[in-house]
User: Fold this.
Amino acid sequence: MDFSVLRNLISRYCVGEENWLDSRTVYIGQKEPPPGAAAYIPQRYPDNRIVSSKYTFWNFIPKNLFEQFRRIANFYFLVIFLVQLIIDTPTSPVTSGLPLFFVITVTAIKQGYEDWLRHKADCSINECPVDVVQQGKAARTQSHKLRVGDVVVVKEDETFPCDLVLLSSSREDGTCYVTTASLDGESSHKTYYAVPDTKAFRTDREVESLHATIECEQPQPDLYKFVGRINVYKDTEEPVARPLGSENLLLRGATLKNTHHIYAVAIYTGMETKMALNYQSKSQKRSAVEKSMNAFLIVYLCILISKAVINTVLKYAWQWSPDRDEPWYNHRTENERQRPVVIRAFTDFLAFMVLFNYIIPVSMYVTVEMQKFLGSYFITWDEEMFDEELGEGAQVNTSDLNEELGQVEYVFTDKTGTLTENNMEFIECCVDGNVYVPHAICNGQILSAASSIDMIDSSPGGYRREHEDLFFRALCLCHTVQVKEEETVDGIKRGFHQGRPTSFYISSSPDEVALVEGMKRLGYTYLRLKDNYMEILNKDDEIERFELLHVLNFDSVRRRMSVIVKSSSGEYLLFCKGADSSIFPRVVSGKVEQVKARVEQNAVEGLRTLCVAFRRLSPDDYQEACLLLTQAKLALQDREQRLAQAYDAIERDFVLLGATAVEDRLQEKAADTIESLHKAGMKVWVLTGDKMETAAATCYASKLFRRSTQILELTKKRTEEQSLHDVMFELSRTVLRQRSMSGLSVDCLDYGLIIDGATLTAVLKSGPEGNYREVFLEVSRNCSAVLCCRMAPLQKAQIVKLIKASKEHPITLAIGDGANDVSMILEAHVGIGIMGKEGRQAARNSDYAIPKFKHLKKMLLVHGHYYYIRIAELVQYFFYKNVCFIFPQFLFQFFCGFSQQPLYDTAYLTLYNISFTSLPILLYSLVEQHVSMDTLRRDPSLYKDITKNSLLRWPVFLYWTCLGLFDAVVFFFGAYFLFDNTTFTSNGQMFGNWTFGTLVFTVLVFTVTIKLALDTHHWTWINHFVIWGSLLFYVIFSLLWGGIIWPFLNYQRMYYVFMQMLSSGPAWLSIILLITISLLPDIIKKVLCRAMCPTPTERAQSNRQCLTVEPSSIFMLSQSSSRMSF
Assistant:
C-alpha cells in the first residue's frame, strides 16, 4: 500500500506550511488530478446564486414582525394591546391595536416592497446565460448553476458571472483588458494576465485536456488582494507551480473589453465573490436626534408610570370609605370582593397605564421614517448639485442621517482629488540639479511630433547626458500605463490627431499619465508593451526595446514602485520612482542635495513631487532578486509580508537621477467652501498622505490657512531636535496663553497645527512620561485648522475616532474620493464620498456622495440646516400634542372618582395621531423653510444657531412639555367652568360627559393644528390644503360618526353628540376663547424674545422685507428636473 498520499494528506492537515483551513483547492474542469498527485478531496462550495434579499415568502411575516418588535416603542404598544385583551380596561383594545397595526403594516409593506425589488434584481442576475466548457465544447447554462472549478467562456463586452482565474485569451500574449467601473468606478482599461503554462490552451478541446489545480486563500472582501498558485500537471513531468495574484483574478461584475474571448475557471461563486462580500451591510450609524428621541421617550415613559401610580393610590384613598368603595349603583360580585387587594391594585395600575398610554407617540417613529425617506429626495433632485461633466448628481446611500448634516462640528477632508482636481499637469523635471521645462503639456493624447525643449543648459556633458537618458528612460519604463488605439469612450472619440488615428495613454493613476506625456514632450515616447518587451522612441527617433522582467508594484506603505528590465545589450537595470521620503534613505550616490533643494522648492509651490533612481544589477544580483520574488509570490501564507521583505532587499543602493514636479490644481470654489465652513463654526482638518510642504501650500491656496495664521508644527523633524514631551507642552503653553489673553484683547491670534504621521503614532502611544492624547486634543481644539500630512489610511480613521471620543463628543464628517479614505468615511458620524478619478470606493462606502467638493457647502449649510430644523420641530411637536391630548384625561380622573372613565370616544383616541394631526406635521417637516436658501448661503454663521443639538436640548424639551401642560389645563378647566353652570341646549337637554370630552377634543385638535400653522414660515398652497383640510376632515368625520346609525356598532354613545354641541352658542364661544387663550402665551413669548434678544436666525427672518412667493419645493424640484434619481 502506498502511504505517500496518506502522509501527504496528514501533513497538509496538521503540520504543513499552509493552514488547510485558510486555503482551498480547486480542480479545474472538475477533473481529478493524475495518479500520484495530491489526494483528491471533493469540497463543497456554494453555487453561484446571488441573494441580496432579506426575506423569503415563508419567513417574511415572522422575521419582519420580530425585527419590528425589537424597537422599544412597538414592543411597548404590543404589551399595552395584550393587557387590554387580557384584563377589563377602560378603553377598547382597538384604540391601541389599530395604531400599532397601522404602523406595523406600513413598515412591513415598505420593507416588503424593497425586498421584492431585490428578489427581482437577484432573479435577473441569477438567470443570465453563461457558456461553460463541458466534454470539449461550450454549453449554455444559467449563471446560478455555475460551480467552483467550472471553466467559463466569456466574450467581449460580457460581464464576468463570478470571480474567475484567467487561463487563456484570444490574444496571443495571454492578456485581456477589463473595466471595473461597476466595482470601483474606474473606467480605464486594466490588463490581466494568464500564467505562461495555460495561455496556450485556446480552444474548447484544448482547455478540456488541461489538468491543473489551484490552491488559493479563502474568500475575503479586499478587491485588490488575491493569493494563490496554480499547479499544472503534464504527462511525464512533475507539476509546474506558478504564483497567482490580483493580476490573474477577474472579479464578478467587471466587463471584458478589447478581447474577443477568454477562458477562465470559477474560483469564488455566489455569496463568496468579492463583490458580494463588499456589498454586505455596514455598521448602523445613529444620529443625535434619534438618541434625543429615545431619551425623551424614557422621560415620558416615567411620566406615564407616575400618572398610573398616582391614580392607583388616589383611587384606593378615595374608596377608603365604604360608601365610595361600593356605591348603590355599582355593587361588586362575590368574586370581586374575594380578590386580594394587591391583585386588584395591580390590575387597576395596568388599566391606568392603558388609559394614559397615548402619551407615548407610536406614530412618531413612522412619521420620522417617512420624513427621512421622502426628504432625502431633495438632495438627489437638487440641480445645483448636478455635475455636467460627470453627468451625475448627489446620491443618498442612507437617509437615517439627514439631520446630522446640520450638526457637523468637525470636517475631515482628503486633499488629492477632494480639495484638488486630481487632474495632473507635468510642470518640470530636475536631473542632477538641472531643470527641464517643456513649453506645454497636452493631457490625454500623444501628438505626432515632439515639441522643443527649454532647458537651463542645453549642452550637457557626457556624464550628465548619460544620467539624462537614464532619467527619461526610467520614466518611460517605470509605470503601468497602457497605450490604446483610437476608440470611443463615453461617447467621445479619443486618439485622433489632425484627422489621423493615433494612440493615447490610460492608467489608473493620473500621475503616471502626466509623467509619460511629459516625457513625450521632452523627446522620449513610450510606444507599447508587446510580448513582455517595452518599446520607447528616443530623441534620435530610434526605437529602443527593453525586456520587462519584473514589476515591483506600488503600495501605500513603501510609497514607491520599481521595474527590472533587460536592455538590448543584456544589461539588467532596476528603475525606481517614489516619494522623496522613501527614495532618499536608499540612495548611495548622486547629487542628492541639489535634487532635494529643488524638491523642497516645488513642494512649497504646491506641486506634487516624485524622485527617480536606478541601480545596475549584475547577473548574480538579478538571479538573487528572481529567487526572492518567486519564493514570495508562491507563498500562500503571509505573501504580502514576504513580498515586502523581498522588495526591501532588492530596492537598495540606488543612484539618484532626479525628480519630477506635477501640478494638481485646486478644485473650483474649494477655497470659498472652506471659508464658508469656517464661518459656520466648523473646524476643518486636512488629512493627506502628501508631504508637508505640498499639503501646506494647498492649505494656503484653499484659505484653510491664512497669511496671518500662526503655524504650530508637531513633526518628526521638530521632535528630533527636542523631545516629544517638550514640544507637546510648549505648544500647549502657547495656545493656552493666547486663550487667556483673548479675553482681554479683541485681536487674538489664529493658530494652525501641522502634524505628520510618524509624530501622530508617537502621540497616540501612551509613554512613560504621560498620556499625550489629551494635550494633543487641547492644542488642536484651540486651532482653527489642522493639517495632518504623511497619513496612512488607518491613521486617518484613528484621528477621526480620537476626536469623536473627546469629552465634547462633537459630530464629525469625513469626505474623500479614494479607497484610502474609506476607513475615515466609515468611522465618522457622517461619511461623504466624492465621485472622483480614484474610483468609486469612497462613494460606495459613504452615507452621501457628491460630484465635487464645492457641493459640500449647500449640502451642510442649506440641506443640513433645513433637515435639522424640520425634524427637531417634528419631534418636539409630537410630544407636545400628545401631552395636550392625554393630560386632560389625567385631570378627568379627579372628577370621576378615579374610575378609569375615558374622556374621549374610542374613535378619537384611535384617529388622533393617525389622521387628525399627522399630515400637517409631516408636510411641515418636508417643505418648511424658516429662512430662504439664499440667506443661508449668504450668511453661513446661521449654522451656529442649530449646532450641538440646540433645538432638542432639555430646556427646549421642558418648554414644549410645559406648554403642552398649560394648554391641556386650559382645555380641561375652561370647558369644566363652562359646564359648571349646567348648560342646556335649545331643546332643554343637558350636556353629558361625552359632549364635555368632545368639546375638549375639538379645542385640542384646532389648537395644536393652528399652533403648527403659526410656526410655519414657508407657505405654499399645499400647506394650506393639508392644514385646513385636516381640520375640515375632523369636522366632517365627527358629523358622520355621530350623525349616522352604524349597523356594526352595538351601542353608539356619540350619536348626535357633535351636532348637539355645535348647536349651542356657548360651545362655539368656548372653542374660540379657549383656542385663543391656549396660543397666547407662546405668541407673547416669541414676540418678546424677538424684540429683546433675537437670535441671528430671527434677525435674518426680520430682515426679509416680504415673504417670497415660491411654489412648493416638492413640485418645483419635480417639475424642473428630468434627471430625478429614485
